[in-house]
Amino acid sequence: MPAKGKHRRPKFLRLPRAIAVAGTGGAALALPLMGAVCAHAAAPAAAVPSAVQRITTVSTPAGTAAAKTYVVKAGDTLAKIADRQHVSGGWKKLYADNRAVVGADPTVIRPGLKLTIEGQGATQPSASTATRTAAAKTTAAKATPAVDAGYTLPVQGAIIGTGYKVPGSMWSSGYHTGVDFVVPTGTTVRSVAAGTVVSAGWGGAYGNQVVIQHADGRYSQYAHMSALTVAAGQTVTEGQQVGVSGATGNVTGPHLHFEIRTTPDYGSDLDPVAYLRSHGVVVG
After folding, report:
1. Which end of the chain is more exposed for a tag (fewer CB within 10 A), N or C?
2. What are phi and psi of 208, to 5 degrees?
């Protein structure tokens, strides 16, 4: 029986107003301990502070990037562009993605064309991507040698009359410094590769001539033409017309005299047929 006149009151546990700190991946979340105990089971997801969301980093998969546009420059080929831009699948993939722009012939791309380069071209390739790209380049080179070089014949369907280094007193060097393609006057003469015209005009014994510098540092010369269609300083593409054949200068009949040189000047000649063949061009 309880003592007379006294009532014992139950004692309630008084929790201190302490602060609990919960780790949230780098952000500290401060809550009253009582609130944390009472709301533990019922706290909705929406109650998570926005600070937790701000410290979350969302990373994109390695090796991906947005597609970009590449503007073709003089001397470019699909193979060169695919190599520099790390296109997985090489020039064939690049051509397939841009066939509507390039056209039916992948060996002819004009400066100023806008090509779409897929995302992987904007980043350094992984080891596996580099391996696949190298394999694609090897396959492309074996399948289409001319595409890798971007070269063509200066005149189509012609046969060689006088070959390179044929000796003779009629030439000041003592030998023929180029090759003569036998064609009638008025035949279209084309640049064998993309480049820049360094001279176009009268060349003395060569008659009307054009000299073009190419990306590999070599120069091509086209002589005895009846008319020229380019001027010095002009950029030309592979296969672009530079004039029409004729019989100007010291000649015995119409033909195209063609040379490859290490400089733009006479006396620095190389074997033009060997040069074209090294770039995949079939010379008859």
Report:
1. N
2. -75, 125
53-92 residue pLDDT tens: 343 444 444 444 567 889 988 778 888 888 888 888 888 8
Of the candidates 125, 90, 87, 86, which has an alpha carbon nearest to the alpha carbon of residue 106? 90
CATH fold of the domain at 68-149: Membrane-bound Lytic Murein Transglycosylase D; Chain A (3.10.350)
CATH class of 159-278: mainly beta
Domain with CATH 2.70.70.10 in the chain: 159-278
pTM of this prediction?
0.50
